[in-house]
């Protein structure tokens, strides 16, 4: 058996994303399944080491999940040739510093989005990787969500005819921390602009790669942001001023004429099928797409409603949709992208989701904020 042993420095794994999605559900899941079987006689094995600032937290996670190695001495592991990949899930404003350190050490770079909060900085970081000739990638997990894969299958099959419009509704109620026994379920830096927070920079990065890859290239953006809730309570129980946007109402015009509207909010309550639901309407059919499930209605099954508010609605609209069945065993989206990046590093396979692609997400977010500030449409140019 030919085995590629890939050492991975995992930085920022005491945080939400680093620990749950990247360590537990991706790297440890790959380790526990015995690596990635490339062919009957070739496989890739992962060898993670956890890095961060807090010795106690690292030790606790390492022990809880059976990870042998951890250290607070990042320089020493960067100098160690046993590790080919540096992964970063620390908060956004620390990304550049860590990525640059790892590039200097010649590591392949994989990191969370956004790579920066300004387009110039995101491009600079992508260029630093290119100039050094290191392999690099950015998390674009939504592309491998079960619901999105079902949607992609429908598009490939021509189910929609011509797609006309897409409406995405993302969000849920994030507790402010003021209410008894209800601490906030997101980190407080998300609500402070000075710490890299804000829902526009957070979510427009996702909408960029999702729309570009699934529906077509975005040519213009109009965006209105809001800070609906101006005071929240942090992890230590202290009140703080929310300086970042916590809701955003964005419209994207695509080169192919499709209109996409995406609302993103941490201040709404859910009465829909999932935390993120997209409605895709086409001439021959429509789909409702959630994180895992997807429902369709074809032209032939489309009811003909008549406006009459004087009687109860005679049509049960929900009954007119059919669920798309599972076609395969859908794995965790982050794990799927990790496996692609590991194959890129070990086997030189294609991996198009690099830091320059990631910079496009930052570009859309920055233009969204500009559109809001200047109250006008922004053209989305080539990077
Ligand atoms: N792909 C996605 O769907 C998704 C979702 C949420 C967040 N994110 C991104 O993931 C990143 C982390 O977000 P999170 O929600 O896990 O945040 P978090 O606050 O839960 O975790 C942040 C991590 O960064 C570390 N950190 C903070 N300051 C540091 C410093 N000075 N030096 C070293 N480490 C430091 C913390 O210890 C922690 O491990 C952000 O960039 C965020 O935009 C991505």
Describe the protein's architecture and organization.
It is a single chain. The chain has a 9-stranded mixed beta sheet with strand order 17-16-15-14-8-13-12-9-18. The model has no long low-confidence stretch (mean pLDDT 98). The chain folds into 2 domains: 2-140 and 333-354, NAD(P)-binding Rossmann-like Domain (Rossmann fold, 3-Layer(aba) Sandwich), CATH 3.40.50.720; 143-328 and 363-374, Dihydrodipicolinate Reductase, domain 2, CATH 3.30.360.10. It has helices spanning 16-32, 55-65, 74-78, 95-104, 119-132, 146-156, 199-214, 333-347, 355-374; strands at 2-11, 36-39, 42-51, 69-71, 83-88, 108-111, 136-138, 163-171, 218-226, 231-233, 239-241, 247-254, 259-265, 276-282, 285-289, 294-298, 322-323, 378-379. It contains 9 helices and 18 strands. A hairpin with a 5-residue loop joins strand 10 (231-233) and strand 11 (239-241). Helix 1 packs across helix 8, helix 4 (95-104) runs parallel beside helix 5 (119-132) and helix 5 packs antiparallel against helix 9 (355-374). It is 31% helix and 26% strand. The protein is of the alpha/beta class and 383 residues long. The longest helix is centred in the last third of the chain and has 20 residues, at 355-374. The site of nicotinamide-adenine-dinucleotide has 21 residues, from helix 1.
Break the fold down into its secondary structure elements and pairings.
Blueprint: E1 2-11, H1 16-32, E2 36-39, E3 42-51, H2 55-65, E4 69-71, H3 74-78, E5 83-88, H4 95-104, E6 108-111, H5 119-132, E7 136-138, H6 146-156, E8 163-171, H7 199-214, E9 218-226, E10 231-233, E11 239-241, E12 247-254, E13 259-265, E14 276-282, E15 285-289, E16 294-298, E17 322-323, H8 333-347, H9 355-374, E18 378-379
Parallel strand pairs: 1-3, 1-5, 3-4, 5-6, 6-7, 8-13
Antiparallel strand pairs: 2-3, 8-14, 9-12, 9-18, 10-11, 12-13, 14-15, 15-16, 16-17
Helix pairs in contact: 1-8, 4-5, 5-9, 7-9
The structure holds nicotinamide-adenine-dinucleotide (NAD).
Nicotinamide-adenine-dinucleotide binds next to α1.
């Amino acid at each position: 058996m030919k085995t590629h042993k890939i050492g991975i420095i995992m930085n920022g794994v005491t945080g939400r994303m680093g620990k749950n999605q990247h360590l537990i559900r991706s790297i440890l899941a790959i380790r526990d399944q015995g690596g990635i079987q490339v062919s009957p006689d070739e496989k890739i094995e992962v060898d993670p080491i956890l890095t961060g600032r807090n010795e106690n937290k690292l030790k606790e996670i390492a022990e809880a999940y059976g990870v042998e190695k951890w250290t607070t001495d990042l320089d020493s592991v960067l100098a160690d040739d046993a590790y080919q990949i540096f992964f970063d899930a620390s908060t956004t404003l620390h990304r550049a510093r860590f990525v640059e350190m790892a590039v200097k050490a010649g590591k392949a770079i994989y990191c969370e989005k956004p790579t920066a909060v300004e387009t110039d900085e995101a491009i600079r970081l992508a260029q630093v990787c290119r100039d050094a000739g290191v392999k690099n990638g950015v998390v674009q997990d939504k592309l491998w969500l079960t619901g999105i894969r079902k949607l992609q299958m429908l598009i490939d099959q021509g189910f929609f005819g011509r797609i006309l419009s897409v409406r995405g509704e993302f969000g849920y109620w994030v507790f402010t921390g003021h209410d008894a026994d209800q601490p906030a379920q997101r980190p407080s830096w998300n609500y402070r602009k000075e710490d890299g927070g804000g829902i526009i920079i957070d979510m427009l990065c996702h909408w960029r790669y999702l729309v570009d890859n699934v529906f077509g290239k975005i040519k213009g953006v109009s965006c209105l942001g809001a800070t609906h809730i101006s005071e929240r309570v942090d992890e230590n129980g202290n009140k703080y001023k929310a300086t970042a946007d916590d809701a955003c109402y964005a419209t994207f015009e695509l080169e192919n004429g499709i209109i996409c509207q995406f609302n993103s909010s941490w201040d709404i309550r859910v009465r829909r099928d999932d935390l993120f639901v997209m409605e895709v309407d086409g001439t021959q059919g429509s789909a409702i797409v959630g994180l895992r499930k997807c429902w369709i209605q074809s032209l032939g099954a489309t009811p003909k409603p008549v406006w009459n508010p004087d009687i109860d609605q005679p049509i049960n609209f929900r009954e007119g949709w059919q669920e798309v069945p599972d076609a395969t065993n859908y794995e965790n989206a982050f794990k799927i992208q990790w496996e692609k990046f590991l194959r890129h590093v070990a086997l030189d396979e294609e991996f198009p989701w690099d830091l320059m692609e990631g910079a496009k997400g930052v570009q859309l977010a920055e233009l969204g904020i500009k559109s809001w500030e200047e109250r006008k449409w922004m053209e989305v140019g080539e990077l």
